[in-house]
Amino acid sequence: MTKETMKAVGLYKYLPIEDPESLLDVEVEKPVPAGRDLLVKVRAISVNPVDYKVRSPKNREESEPKILGWDVAGVVEQVGPEVTLFRPGDEVFYAGSITRPGGNSEFHLVDERIVGMKPSKLDFAQAAALPLTSITAWESLYDRLGISRNKGDNEGKTILIIGAAGGVGSIATQLAKYSGLTVIGTASRPESADWVTGLGADHVINHFEAFLPQLKAAGWEQVDYILCLNSTEKHWSNMAEAIAPQGKICSIVETDELLNLTLLKNKSVTFVWELMFTRSTYQTPDMIEQHNLLNEIARLVDDGVLRTTTNETLTPINAANLRKAHAMLETGRTVGKVVLEGF
């Protein structure tokens, strides 16, 4: 029996994005769901820094095409025998797992425990912008920083979000504001500052200048929480200065340099990492929390509390458009999310 194939975008060599072979249109075998997997017909995808970090030049070649992509919106085509949360025809959105093939393909396998029902008020392109950034922002605020989801508990508390105009920052700003925090975002250009203010930030400072003088000029002596979404080592001393005694700092950005944790000691400051792939990579007992939080994100979107962060949509999903999207992200100047729709 001839095996079914599907279109995908993948790579064999890890090359600079300017190289036409850095991402290629390929045909691969269509997968079949087993266990708790869903087979999803991919309708839209979005691009994140993890895509170009995985694709970045290195001395390695793949014998089979490596498929990237960790933001998908689509329709459940088929379910594995152990699936209980979804059925064929359900419209879903999710980020997937870094340890499995990504979603830049016509069909994609994903564990149901990290999948949510797509917001009903969004189209597939708008929904595809949300999963990875929403999971990261949610886990950073509520799981890592331990911020209460009860607005009353956060009265008078402040959070500084470094890189507030990016994908994660755009969601974190909205969630933090919804949770009753005073939100101070960082941005360096007028258009990114306007974007952050439009998402509900109370104040914007420039991340290329010292934080504390800017905070003091705006009336704050310190902040209770910091979420770092850009260059952990570059902002380390600024964060140590600005954080309140017994405050908490969370970062999502790996560092190439050693961090001087002693800077946090006298204030008894907590520092914690967030990686949204931890639960799926290690199959943690609470892995289903990503299913739950994505459903809650969908509810907040449908209730008008959260808005999608799509800022540019490219059609169709192919290697040329994905190379263009990667190049845009690599400038470090994108506002919101770049989405691709339709094969």
Specify the CATH homologous superfamily of the largest domain.
Medium-chain alcohol dehydrogenases, catalytic domain
User: How confident is the prediction overall: mean pLDDT?
Assistant: 95
List the quaternary state of the chains.
Answer: single chain
Cα gyration radius (Å): 20 Å
User: Please, how many domains?
Assistant: 2
Structural class: alpha/beta
From the coordinates shown, what is the CATH architecture of the largest domain? Alpha-Beta Complex
Q: Classify the fold: give the CATH topology of the largest domain.
A: Quinone Oxidoreductase, Chain A, domain 1
How many helical elements? 10
Distance from N terminus to C terminus (CA atoms, Å) equals 26 Å
Brief characterization of the structure:
The protein is an alpha/beta fold and 343 residues long. It has 10 helices and 16 strands. Residues 18-340 form the Enoyl reductase (ER) domain.
